Sequence to fold (318 residues):
Amino acid sequence: MRPAAALAERLGLPVRDLDLLQQALIHSSYLHEHRDLAAGHNERLEFLGDSVVSLAISDALYRRYPDDDEGVLSARRASIVSTTGLARLASRLELGEYLLLGEGEAQRGGRRRPALLASALEAVVGALYLDLGYDGASGFVTALAAPELTSDRSLGSLKSPKSRLQEYTQRLSGERPQYRLIDAVGPDHAKVFRVEVAVGGRAIGVGRGRSRRVAETAAAAHGIEALRLGSGPRDDDRAQAPELAEFPGGDVDDDRGDWGAPQEERESTGGPWVKTDPEALDLAQGGETSGIGRAVGNVASGDSVSTEERLGDQGGSS
Fold:
């Protein structure tokens, strides 16, 4: 069975153009090694899917949180559509197992690399948009992201440690944290980076990870912990600083696809993809069952489902 057919079966979607979905799974490294087996890679579909994902998530958040201002909605959206967030969604589908990668990319751990997974998910959404239309593609996106869309996490916990540390240091002194690579050890396909973060010339944390970005995020998380637990003339500032608050579950790794996040964080990402349960995906404020699941299922019958029907028209609820 071709990867596209296997993925379509796993998604439970009425995919009509398997060739298009197959292209969404082809990484450029595979095309370079197998030009006679593939007509093109997935980057154009990624470009298209990026916009579909952003609009679908923005629409869902706008309706789910009618009292949030633009800044809060933007933070919520960023936590979902960032590389980290999209890689998390891709992991629910086990999308990496379906990708066609070049031998070198596969050996370097490409099937778990967050940037690659995020791009592939956007490409898949782009293919679904062209094949099933906006309702089918956006219904799939909002169903897949339901745990994040219905999360009651605080605004602070939505931000990465690097963002929180920078906001804190700039608010206090106007300085930005500086990250320095200490070393990078191991073969190319399993290299481990170690990074130090300093503020005002003083080192406050060290982190390690499978990429430099992961190591920087770990260093920022350690720096936040050091500042939160530290003592000195700014005790009151630290105690009241929302950027240094400790959130349940610990600080989230900014690059979850490298599995640097704590075990409990990895287990709380919503589990693997299963067929949509409309009752579990209720994003409507009024408590009525939303139409997200129906948006996916109705594509098979050719029914059109509007955005209002999919998410529930909150403006008309009392």
